[in-house]
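Field: COMPLEX_INPUT
Field: COMPONENT_COUNT = two
Field: RESIDUE_TOTAL = 754
Field: MODE = joint
Values follow.
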Amino acid sequence: MAVTQKGAILAADEGTEKGILNFIKQALSQGCFDAVLIPVRVPTGDSFAYFLVQNEAFLEGASPLSPIMPVQGARVISSLTRRGKGKKRIAAIMRPCEVRATIELAKLGQVDLENIILITVDCPGVIPLSDYFEDPTKGDEVFKDASQNWNSKPMRPVCRICDKFFATGGEDLHIGKLGTNSGSILLIPHSSKGESILNKLGISLKEDISGWEAKVNKLTEERKQERKQVNDALREDIEGIDRLVETFSACINCHNCMRVCPICYCRQCNFDSDNMKFTFEDYITRARARGRLMIPTDTLLFHIGRMLHMSLSCVSCGMCEDACPMAIPVAQIFTVVGDKNQEAFDYVPGRTMDEPLPLTTFDEQEFLEVEQSYAGVSAKQEDQDD
Amino acid sequence: MTKALRIYKSSEEGLKELLKFLLENGKVKGVLTLSKMGEYGAISYSLITNPDDIDSTLPLFPLMPVNLGKQLSRLTLMEPATDPIAVVLRPCELRAFVELVKRNQGSLENFLFISSTCGGVYPLEMAVAGDIEEQLAQYWESVEQGELIPDVRPACKACTYFVPYNSDITLSLLGTKNIDEQSVLFLNTDKGESFVEGISGQFGEEELDSAAVEQIRNKRQAEKQKLYDEVETKSLGIDDLTKTFSRCIDCHNCSKVCPVCYCHMCFFDTEESEYGPVHYETELEKMGYVSMLSDTVFYHLVRLFHVSASCVGCGLCADVCPANIPLWALSLKTGEAVQKAFDYLPGKDIEEGIPITTFKPEEFAGVE
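Field: COMPLEX_OUTPUT
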């Protein structure tokens, strides 16, 4: 975060959500963008869906801080722009992890960001879908209360340890709430796109954002420590092949974690393809080798394969866990692995478009220690072969 | 009268003895049944080749982590089973497999099907919460008494096809006295009879207690009506459907676990059903807004259209739905209507063609 950065304070007398909506409406009517992508409460009132809204009147039911995340926003932007950008400029109001996933998808060629303006809000987390759907009215209450007090307890387990709940740099405009007065919100542009919106609206950047930054930094530090503790504890439970097998033994191979994951963009997963179809002879041979073969087969292989493919880009949004019928803590496990892998490459998924995906870049000086230890192994191997 | 075998051990132990006998004597080369994975692991299906592993199986545990019919299709999609395999499965799983075989998605060859009169299974979320074990005593008591079992899947409470079709061996459980002391196994086919030859037990001729079966069927029928009313499936017009599916998150997991949805790739996951920006922008111009979750009702309608003639009412779709949509009721109710119209019961008769592949000139003359 740039030290000299300035922001703008906007009044939000009727609460944060209303304040954000007023700003969005104003920007929409002034032609800062042509349409808004935003969570809207569905007509039955018991869930939310992303709506693309052009007519201001339809923003009434919109909820920039919806209590749940039924679909990851990055997936939505991908379906919107995967086949090319549209003519309209769209402002997407999303959670920071959705924006980060969107940026990862843009790097993977699954999103066209040219006509998209990414707007994030300080995120208090979201309630797990199962908790919310049990009683949506109560869910609304619980979320309202918890988000106002910045209480992460009722949120998704990965939200509780999220250390990137604020702007990470990839968004065009961030709306801060932490450290501001109760009746106001803070606008912080991060790109020329974001700045031009504020210019057009005649909003000048003169507010010092250090109050917001201080709060964010303090909470981030707390969350980082908590994240480490939680990750370490979970690692104990899942480390080693036996524990890993047991952890995933409840898996029913439905692949729903992959299906809702914003990063897993393959139209057909290898694990659903002909590559994973075997003859009966194969199955019985595998069963004989150990005396028994779990059916469905290859569930652990699927999770490890998925991990290998997406953990560098995993934004720990928690969708996978919410969608798992067997309540396997998939998101928490992937967070443990993702954090480690991302740290190894000094990579923060979705931080900025400028950072290329680690697997697409080659650094000659990278991982020399791995190379060296491998060199040792292969030298030994050659000795033995001789 | 049907040939029957009585083993004087509890139903679970008797069944395990049978499975062990089959494996030890080389009558089968593998057994497919439920067992627990490791000390902390979950209960799942396994293909077991080592007779010693039978001791730790749980063939009657009231849980269906996956529909085994679908898994049998996966096992035999490329070639039939190369060796005889005993499969312990529930009536709806066997019916689902028969439907898949009719669609050329597997082969019945070399399988010995062992099923039972079925009390139903608990929802997956109860397995997750670890709440099933403490219910087991009550489960088996209700099974023995032929009573409705509280807390099983709603689809199971409403199931009237609890007597298996096409099983070589049927273990009598529902409304059967002393199931904790003896196993009553009906040998429905010559295959069933020949496989058990040589096992120690009492052979004779018996009949399923048809009065008890009828009574249970009536109770389930009444329960089904009650459950239908609860989920408000009365009219199922477009308003109702929009309301019912308002929470759908478009994950398609119902299709993924459905034993009848066998398409390698669902139409709704293909490029065909993807929109480009032009579509969204046209809608925007027309309406002023557009939902990015717009095709969910369409998806469910098409799915119902495709599977309803073959829906066996296993209830797995509802169990895996992250939005708790009572899909089982919609599938079952639609299925019943479609199956009645074609006088077709999915999975009953392997020789009977699926309705959409058969043409009768005199059919639906009224509609025409």
